[in-house]
Amino acid sequence: MAEANWYVAHTYSGYENKVKANIEKTIENRHLEDQILEVRVPLQDVVEVKNGVRKTVQKKLFPGYVLLNMVMNDDTWYVVRNTRGVTGFVGPGSKPVPLTDVEMFNLGIQSNSVTVEFKEGDTVTVIGGVWKDTIGVIQNVNQGKQSVTINVELFGRETPVEISFTEIRKM
Question: Is 0.85 topped by the overall pTM?
Fold first, then answer.
């Protein structure tokens, strides 16, 4: 069986949730659960201030787009492409292009989650990137972004720098 990849379908703006629901219904009706694995409308939390009141609301990260984790074949292409509200796939012509691993990681779709035993106050050495061979003390650990904030000395002052888990080693 072919490998499933993430694809992006373009929709009419405002129809993202309707398209998602229609595709999921079609998957169920046509028994394509093993070919179209997941349909997503990426959302982000945004803080809005109206009349002096702070309120957290969810907004679409990419208005007009739906993300699909699917095995690309004639059946799945036809189902998605002929769903009401879908204008096509992202890619040249009618040929959909899957998202790369880097794009998926940046979107937060698929992350190679790294488990670390770092905690605030630990001293670490940076082993990659522009801060290579720099020694710093962890000020903050962010599991969601898979990074830590360390203080490094820059021009005689302590400066906070965010470093990926994969670029540091505990001393």
Answer: no
